[in-house]
Design brief:
The chain is of the alpha/beta class. It has a single domain (about 5-190), classed as Alpha/Beta hydrolase fold, catalytic domain (Rossmann fold, 3-Layer(aba) Sandwich), CATH 3.40.50.1820. About 35% of the residues lie in helices and about 20% in strands. The protein has seven helices and eight strands, in the order E-H-E-H-E-H-E-H-E-E-H-E-H-E-H. The strands form two sheets. The protein has a six-stranded parallel β-sheet with strand order 2-1-3-4-7-8, with helices on both faces. Strands 5-6 form a two-stranded antiparallel sheet. Strand 1, helix 1 and strand 2 form a beta-alpha-beta unit. The chain starts with a strand and ends with a helix.
């Protein structure tokens, strides 16, 4: 039976991000029985969640989810609402606080889409946050300490009851992600 891996990219990113491409290459070479679904997520939170939920509702195969940065925030929500396993890579735990410094006009460097990030969007993120996740036994946190965008200690605290892999060094892109692709698939039980 075919399985599906849902990959959720981060803020101002795309399905063409490095980790998404690494996962796609790994699946093509080693696990062609797994379909990769990696949508270009909407730029605003409520629209992005509606899009993700619609995709999850339509999947007819077993699936797992991987999310990076803001995608990790979404992957946690998928794990909570759909009972799926998730791998979160340098996840944004409090994007409503983090992205408050980014209010105003934005341009996605991958798609060149222009949009305005507002305080209403921060409220949407706060409302969509899973404050006390009950799904942590189904989550694997991959975190590098030298993430220049996010404070890794927030993720360690939030995901403290999940499976955790913390590495010294690295950066927000999670250097060496290609070495984890097979383990990610095993954890997701796909």
């Amino acid at each position: 039976m075919m399985a599906t891996l849902l990959y959720l990219h981060g803020f101002n990113s795309s399905p063409n991000s490095i980790k998404a491409r690494l996962m796609q290459e790994h699946l093509a070479q080693y696990r062609p029985d797994i379909e990769l679904v990696c949508p270009q997520l909407a730029s605003t939170p409520a629209a992005a969640w509606a899009q993700i939920a619609s995709i999850c509702d339509q999947l007819n195969t077993p699936f797992g989810v991987v999310g990076s940065s803001l995608g990790g925030f979404w992957a946690t929500r998928v794990a909570e609402h759909y009972g799926m396993r998730a791998v979160v890579v340098n996840p944004a735990v409090n994007p409503h606080i983090l992205l408050a410094d980014w209010l105003g006009e934005q341009e996605n460097p991958y798609t060149h889409e222009r949009y305005v990030l507002t305080s209403r969007h921060m409220t949407e993120l706060a409302d969509l946050r899973i404050n006390e996740p009950s799904c942590l036994e189904r989550i694997w946190l991959l975190q590098q300490q030298d993430d220049e965008v996010l404070d890794y200690r927030e993720a360690l605290d939030y995901y403290r009851f999940a499976r955790v892999c913390i590495q010294k060094g690295g950066d927000h892109s999670f250097i060496g992600f290609e070495h984890y692709c097979a383990q990610v698939i095993r954890f997701l039980q796909l």
